[in-house]
Design goal:
20 helices, mainly alpha, 62% helix, homodimer
Chain lengths: 503, 503
Amino acid sequence: MSHLSDLKATLAQITHLQEVSQILSWDQQTYMPPGGAEGRSEQMSTISRITHELSTSSDLGRLIDGAEKEVSALEPTSLDAQIVRMVRYDFDLSTKLPTNFVAEVVKTTSMAEHVWMEARRENDFSKFAPWLQKNVDLAKRTVEYYGYDDLPYDALLNLYEPKMKTRDVRVLFDQVRPVVVRLVKAIQERQGSIDGSVLLRSFDESGQEAFSKEVVKTFGYDFNRGRLDRTTHPFATSFGKNDCRITTRYDKNLVQMALMGTMHESGHAMYEQNVGDDLVGTTLAGGCSNSLHESQSRLWENLVGRSKEFWQYFFPKFYAQFPEQLADVDLATLYRAFNQVTPSLIRVEADEVTYNLHIILRFELEQDLLDGKLTVADAPDAWNQKMTDYLGVTPTTDAEGVLQDIHWAMGGMGYFPTYSLGNFVSCQLFEKALEANKDLPIEIASGNFSSLFSWLKENVWTDGRRNFPLEQIRKATGRPLETSPYIKYLTNKFTEIYSLPPI
Amino acid sequence: MSHLSDLKATLAQITHLQEVSQILSWDQQTYMPPGGAEGRSEQMSTISRITHELSTSSDLGRLIDGAEKEVSALEPTSLDAQIVRMVRYDFDLSTKLPTNFVAEVVKTTSMAEHVWMEARRENDFSKFAPWLQKNVDLAKRTVEYYGYDDLPYDALLNLYEPKMKTRDVRVLFDQVRPVVVRLVKAIQERQGSIDGSVLLRSFDESGQEAFSKEVVKTFGYDFNRGRLDRTTHPFATSFGKNDCRITTRYDKNLVQMALMGTMHESGHAMYEQNVGDDLVGTTLAGGCSNSLHESQSRLWENLVGRSKEFWQYFFPKFYAQFPEQLADVDLATLYRAFNQVTPSLIRVEADEVTYNLHIILRFELEQDLLDGKLTVADAPDAWNQKMTDYLGVTPTTDAEGVLQDIHWAMGGMGYFPTYSLGNFVSCQLFEKALEANKDLPIEIASGNFSSLFSWLKENVWTDGRRNFPLEQIRKATGRPLETSPYIKYLTNKFTEIYSLPPI
């Protein structure tokens, strides 16, 4: 198998270069002094260019052609067959966009981001509108280059969720939206029944850091192959499975930010730390898709980190770290505080219940913009109307409305739905893990996360990017991507917390 | 000038890749978790390979040929002419070694390093001897590949000091050795006249860090384009002139280590932070040679940081940081403590006076090994004999003798003399700066380093690697490389400190 082994050697080079880009970016967001910005952007651009040349070279194309023949007799689920299949997919995708067009996108979105920042600061949508129009036009051209079988939006969605169909995602969102809207309304009527103010007391940062580290270490995040640093916009990153780092930010008067954020990022990082050793250097040693990745972060942040069982175990430890702040707080109060639902205008501050409504709104508007059903000029009003309909709150400025996210500035249309899909998948996986081990809640309540960790490792993490996302979900759960576990989880949990009448 | 501009575009790529290697290395030595080691070595090897391919490609060779014609009519001191000249020098050098030989060197020295570590730990020279022999043989073959006009050692020396002659270095060392040997003997007779024990008191690390930062900031090291981190083996590194970082290590009971180390590294870093803007991305935006670089670190560490004037200004600040530790200490005691001379067995712990004897010893042994005048088997005894002759102390184990440095294991023959040359150059430059501004000592005593900073910037730093080292020294001082300023400095300073009779 000489083409295959040559192919693997090239993939290893590409992998190293991708890892190097991640290192440059991690440093940029953690320790780089301000003066380094310009040089860093040049270093990153050189590495990107070399990576792109290697990933789209005709030499690589020939190696893939040859390797396909060599693996044609293998089982489709064998490692080599899966590597070649995925590399073929990546190669065809990355060679579809002309180099000039890629350069145009980079240039336009970089300018658009700059303008967006100003427009948001000045609350002036008219400034950003022409750039949003340019980005919508670029998205349309991107769609044409990539092509699609069914709906144009598929081409954008598939950048983040390979082989998923917009039409199927719509069905899922249509199942979730009415339930969540009703849930939000019912909770609104019980507003005031939860007092979350305990989380706004003053919690010193070193205590937050110590506790957050203890939590994710207990989960199974391996600090011998990772670390936790401070940054402005938290993220997880991987330089190979043996160096997966997480970052967070601290607010003394908002204790959940660092804690929940660290748990969230640890989910991403544990995924990457536990891909199969056989995938190292193949370009498949990473998460399967955005939604699968997000399912892991959400699972550890929400299904574990906001659960009653989690706090049963960690409350005494949290108390030991902050005895003064928690002197008059009991477990039930703390648990409810971490699960308070408050419809708000800003997505990134949203709670577990309202979060998906923010996503559904964006998913709908993106499709309408792409199809031409919605003009850029009408986008602010359409945004505000949906906020009112879904969440019962209405932005008074565009800065807290249509201008709030960077995604449409950076050319990230198609990305938003993956956040909600991640929530759905997290519940579907967790339900399956519970099926396999009914004692999971008891284990969590006693600080034992090993069987949950092992289940996820065996059924998701170890496969890396061997499968497309819907294949991976079916492999792990025996089912297609479904919303019923999510709807059941959300309804049960918040009906109990807010003592709601049946939804 | 189309070849020249294409050449510059390629040089920019090479520069970015070199900077990326430095970033990977910095991270490895500061924040990388233990698990990252194997992946990091693969990432670095991929970047090195790409850099080497680009730096030795026949395409680059043709661009240099073309550019040489284009700049042939320019003044030799014009920037473009100097760029082409230096790039030609680099290219010819890096294409002289066959790729297979380079791979053999990398493999052998990497194994040799490993064996050396064991041999030193176990104090077993016989274990390392065959690997030292291999490295000597590789050095001989390296010499043959590079070629030389006069002495074989020139080819090794020129890797660190382009165009310098071994014969000339011998002359300089022969001037210095007897003076220093006499100085050491005289000081030995006054041993006990200085009590340096104050530096061994307990100084908390955060105080050391705060004071060290204050010092180098006052020097002119720009933290907006740099930072100070902890590491095991301190170094300075540059990712471009706008991101030059320094590292240090702390010992609570050895306050000079972090402080002097930080000043030392700040000298390296200020050099890199202040190369001319016109050199950015040309592969010339760095230090001129090892000795020039070392001259800057030594100048700030020794000529400034161990001077009476420095402590006149900084003593009250040092005292403010450590009032308890310094309660019974006056300025004169502290100044002398920082300048205590104690012949010791270990180079890296040596003081200003004895340091060069450690270097001269190694320089002499290296030449004898290369010429065959000394066999590997006889090296330990030869080492010990010279230690006795020059320093009056004799190693009782090979671990503190011939096995103490990593250089001969890592294939770094030719490197050692640059340390001493750096000391000579530091004094030659400082003398010249003093000539230009007689008030320098008064300025330093009042915490004003701006005219020294400016003089170095104008006469050394801004030129980067435009000139070969001897050219740069002449340009800055109007003289060839000389030892008389160094001999004068050392003799005067320590005659006063130790109240010695005339040497």
